[in-house]
Amino acid sequence: MRLAKHIFDFYINTSLHIGFAVLALTCITQKSESLPIQIPLQSTIFFATVLGYNFLKYYQVFKTNKWHTPIYYSILTVCFLAILGFLFFFFKLNQENQIQFFFAGLAVLLYSFLRKFGWLKMFLVSGVVTYVTVFIPYPKLSINLYIELHQRLLILISLLIPFEIMDTQIDAKNLNTLPQLFGINRTKVFGILLVIPCMILEFLKPNPSYAFLIIAIVTALFIRYTSLQRNSYYTSFWVESVPILWWILLLILNF
Question: Which residue has the higher pLDDT, 244 or 143?
Answer without folding.
Answer: 244
